[in-house]
Amino acid sequence: MTEVILAIDQGTTGSTIALMDTEGRLLTSVNHEFQQLFPQPGWVEHDPEDIWQSVLQGLTAVFASRQYDASDVLAIGITNQRETAVLWDALTGQAVHNAVVWQCRRTTDVCERLKTAGHEALIKARSGLVLDPYFSATKFRWLLDHSPSAENLLAEGRLRAGTIDTYLMWRLSNGKTHKTDVSNASRTSLMALETLDWDDDLLSIFGVPRAILPEICPSSGRFTVTEAVPGLPDGVPVSGVAGDQQSALFGQACFQPGDAKCTFGTGSFILMNAGDRPVGSDHGLLSTVAWQLEGETATYALEGGAFVCGAAVQWLRDQLGMIENAADIEALAASVDDAGGVEFVPALAGLGAPYWAPEARGTLTGLTRGSGKGEIARATLDAMALQNVDILKVMESDSGQAMQVLKVDGGASANDLLMQLQADYLGRPITRPEVIETTVAGACFLAGLGERIWDSPEALSKVWRAEKVFEVGLGPEQRQQRLASWQSAVSKTLHT
């Protein structure tokens, strides 16, 4: 039988179970979705039991063909939706309330009160994060305040808190392990970037007791072993854990300062390796822990994202009816030489980094009588690439690191025209990997390092393989002209 590493990729809408061999080849993967809960406008919840059942369904399915056997699993890696918060009873394992999902905005008023009280600067300086409902700290506090059993369980020492990685490790170990890794802990607003430990001042500001929080560990190394998990033998080591975007950065073998990856999803998520010291940002980027290997110092990252990327293509499909399938945009955009002066600023959900203008709305400018579907499609691909240029340029400025190559993943990275435009406008080559499921790859790589299947990141660099490189095909003068036109359109959008 084939020796494999198993990845649990626990995402916002479903859980993927995947197997990788010791040569870094993805062998198989299965995904099971679970219910999204919206109890009020702006609120998003998950039932933790639904999450766990989706993982168990995946474990059953991935071995159902008998092609691979659970007894051949050498290690397990976990990657997860990051900021989602859950509280549970240590004795029964029962959650005291549904998990509050990273997308949930229910603690907006709490954040506003903390801003008014003057805590914003300390929170950002200490945690690297902006004060926002996105992060876990205010979610933990809300759960403490609104779960009827929380107070008694806290008093009895039975209350446990964590992000989804922590909850999964608890379930995988039959309640024996209460741990998280530094990358997930860095998304809570409760961990100090410098010390890699829960911070007393931050705990006090948010009102979260240290006693309910997990132990913070490096991202690679033995966290626990399986016990009483349906579909898996006892004793399988869980040896790699990282939040999904950090896992993608690791899975892309971005091991050197200045290495960066962009995930082209509904929005675009960009992370750059910032080296062994936290890097602050003057442009609203987030400073976060990328990972920590066992026995080594932490590696940090800068993170920024555009709210609308692939969602712009969905808008052309669903609202305008310009294309039948998202993939059709490539041929439509390629039917013209350029956008013909049309600029689309896809501020359909406001503008993210580096502008941070949630009130901005999308604009379509430069239209003439000759503008048609092809020009609008091309302008859409242009915008998807150009907004990433804006983010990457400020990343270079904030980090003092020059990026050499941008590695890409996510659904829209399959669009060759978009990738070529990204290379042209950025002025750097774009590399697309063979294993496009980079979050899965990262979890497997971290687990493999933890069990010495690979002995170093350098060994993983040889395992990681490029599928295609897109070289720069646009001269500096043409690039500057294109960027100037885009900046003009963004400026109009911001001042509309």
What report would you give on this structure?
By secondary structure, the chain is α+β, with helices and mostly antiparallel strands. It folds into 2 domains: 4-245, ATPase, nucleotide binding domain (Nucleotidyltransferase, domain 5); 253-496, 2-Layer Sandwich (Nucleotidyltransferase, domain 5). Helices cover 34% and strands 23% of the residues. It contains 16 helices and 23 strands. It has helices at 48-62, 108-116, 120-127, 136-146, 150-155, 164-172, 182-185, 200-206, 244-251, 310-318, 329-334, 373-399, 416-426, 438-450, 457-463, 476-494; strands at residues 4-10, 14-21, 26-33, 45-46, 73-80, 86-89, 99-100, 159-162, 179-181, 191-192, 197-198, 215-217, 220-225, 237-243, 260-264, 268-275, 286-292, 298-306, 343-345, 363-365, 406-409, 430-433, 466-470. The longest helix is centred in the last third of the chain and has 27 residues, at 373-399. It starts with a strand and ends with a helix.
Helix/strand layout:
Blueprint: E1 4-10, E2 14-21, E3 26-33, E4 45-46, H1 48-62, E5 73-80, E6 86-89, E7 99-100, H2 108-116, H3 120-127, H4 136-146, H5 150-155, E8 159-162, H6 164-172, E9 179-181, H7 182-185, E10 191-192, E11 197-198, H8 200-206, E12 215-217, E13 220-225, E14 237-243, H9 244-251, E15 260-264, E16 268-275, E17 286-292, E18 298-306, H10 310-318, H11 329-334, E19 343-345, E20 363-365, H12 373-399, E21 406-409, H13 416-426, E22 430-433, H14 438-450, H15 457-463, E23 466-470, H16 476-494
Parallel strand pairs: 1-5, 5-14, 9-12, 15-21, 21-22
Antiparallel strand pairs: 1-2, 2-3, 4-7, 6-8, 10-11, 13-14, 15-16, 16-18, 17-18, 19-20, 22-23
